[in-house]
Description:
The complex is a heterodimer. By secondary structure, chain A is an alpha/beta fold. Chain A has 2 domains: 24-344, Thiamin diphosphate (ThDP)-binding fold, Pyr/PP domains (Rossmann fold, 3-Layer(aba) Sandwich); 350-390, no CATH class. Chain A has 12 helices and 8 strands. Chain A has helices at 45-70, 84-92, 107-113, 117-125, 158-172, 190-202, 233-237, 249-266, 294-301, 305-315, 321-344, 363-378, and strands at residues 24-25, 99-101, 178-183, 206-212, 215-216, 219-220, 240-245, 270-275. In chain A, helix 8 links the parallel strand 7 and strand 8. In chain A, helix 2 (84-92) runs parallel beside helix 3 (107-113). Chain A is globular, with a radius of gyration of 23 Å. Chain B is an alpha/beta fold. Chain B has 2 domains: 2-185, Thiamin diphosphate (ThDP)-binding fold, Pyr/PP domains (Rossmann fold), CATH 3.40.50.970; 198-324, Rossmann fold. Chain B contains 12 helices and 14 strands. The radius of gyration of chain B is 19 Å and the shape is globular. At the A-B interface, helix 5, helix 6 and helix 12 of A face helix 3, helix 4 and helix 5 of B.
Amino acid sequence: MTTTKSKVVYSPSFTDGAEFRIPTFKLLKQDGKLYKSAKAPDLDKDKALRIYRAMVTTRILDERMLAAQRQGRLSFYMQCTGEEAAVIGSAAALDDNDMIMAQYREQGALAYRGFSIDEFMNQLFGNELDYGKGRQMPVHYGSKKLNYMTISSPLATQIPQATGYAYGQKLAGDGHCTITYFGEGAASEGDFHAALNMAAVQRVPVIFLCRNNGYAISTPAAEQFAADGVAPRAYGYKMDVIRVDGNDVLAMYEATRAARELAVKHNRPVLIEAMSYRLAAHSSSDDPSGYRSKDEEAVWREKDPILRMRLWLESKKWWSEDDEKQFQENMRREVLETMKRAQKRPPPALETLVTDVYDEVPPMLAEQFEKLKAHIRRYPDEYPKSAEHVKGGA
Amino acid sequence: MTKMNMLQAINNALDTAMAADDKVLCFGEDVGVFGGVFRATSNLQQKYGKSRCFNTPLVEQGIIGFANGLAAQGSVPVAEIQFADYIFPAFDQIVNESAKYRYRSGNLFNVGGLTIRAPYGGGIAGGLYHSQSPEAYFAHTPGLKIVVPRNPHQAKGLLLAAIHDPNPVLFFEPKRLYRASVGDVPDEDYRLPLGEAEIIKEGTDVTVLGWGAQMEVIDQAVERAEKEGISCEVIDLRSILPWDVETVANSVLKTGRLVITHEAPLTGGFAGEIAATIQERCFLYLESPIARVTGMDTPFPLVLEKEHLPNHLKVYEAIRESVEF
């Protein structure tokens, strides 16, 4: 039983959906000028610069921290390079109290919300000030005060959670929504389909933002799905969908702003497919030269989303070469100095091994912890990170 | 006090929790107007509306993913998985997400409001896929609590405790007893402690330990053993995770013997964990090997279900062998 009446035919008639061609929404050309019939979103100078600074900050942070990983200071890193507009343009269209449930490559959204360089560094180095208490690999950020859910490595698990979170927001009637980010590879997981279907059925204020960046580690999109990207799946769930040039920050902002309105005012979940390219490797452990050409990368380097926005800002006289130089210099210095400070901070206390598994440490675990402490006391030289913490105890 | 069967007690617990707090929500497959295939959620939608008690699409990983998100948001979801046999599509959401939410975020976020209800166990001619007891899979996952009630009074008190506990709880309901187990249940809100076993009957010769539907089997076995003059101490573990080592160890220090029984297969079953821990604590006090009376290491059968299950005769045999060792 369906809600729409189906036309009847008397011979087998198949369709592969090819009649649905989803257009791509664009506003800004690579030279920083608007397309002929395009209209810039209602974005004032302060907000535009907040977006731009977050994009540049993300780029600088990514460059510096990948270098730090190569120097052996960090175990692991993941860059957002090439996708800054997709992530930050969309995050900027939200209310700062809307929930963000990201995958792992969306540090730009956090930078936009005001996560400090110090906060980034504390997580990356897993020191005693890391909110996550040194438990997760680098780039698994989270911030309660910035409404940014702590990252979880398993792919796509955050997508149905975003549906649930947004359902709670709808019941609370607080006028907020949830946005969840994921890659086109993660969209193959069952959790993606579960999440979209449930959101459509329950009319939940959630925005599903797929960063179609061409690759899931080494697997190209063409080996991920046969269809025209991820966007057409929305039809199957009767969900509003839009495809956007992910390197166009104005289009990303405007599409997400309109999507938020559908979600919050009309309880209509939305799927946004941001077409972009992962310019960097999947992670510091990956080497793209094994699966894609330099020429292909060069094509996308020409479409740099940050340069595109900068040219637009300059055309509006909101930003100058001097501004750029000064901001970059200051940010590079801040990143470097903050990194050095964070790296020197001590590791989390030994007891963080056993806290937060439950709200309280259960007896069996408390006993295991006592045994561990006694062991460390016997071999203090073998455990330099924690020997200090167990001194003097019984 | 009202006489109720276990389903009515569970329904009453959900009703009690939903009446007290608007944030409590019940959902799952067929949970809405129909009240669930076993009717555990009867009348809840009629009483609290479609937004608080509703059907979900048929997708277990979606149900638990959705529930995790709701709990992280501050709601108190009680998600139903129609049969414990069908919980596995949600294994990732439970094991990698529910269980680790608090730990991985350094306590910035948690899904403590989450309760997952699922009917488990055999004895209803359910074959492979309507009979399993999957508690041991989850017992290997720090961050979860696992609770199994044995009768209506326990079901209401433990379920209310699970709903209000600040940690995610898996609540496995012995479906064979849904209508078979009847008893007096207090009308008010009351909560029984999680993580605490209950000594149901004191004895001196042997400790007999189980949970859920096995407690009825143990009762029959013990009745037979006691006729032969064997004094049995009977313990209902109630919580599989975290489990009450203290109560079990103290009992075995006294009796020197332990028989553990569960429906799940022997290898990797939770009895193995209990046996290992108890032999560490009670090594010099043990008079006989710790015995495990369990389902066989096979998928759950259909026609030969009785042969497969650890029934009262098998438990009785184990008690006798333990005492005569």
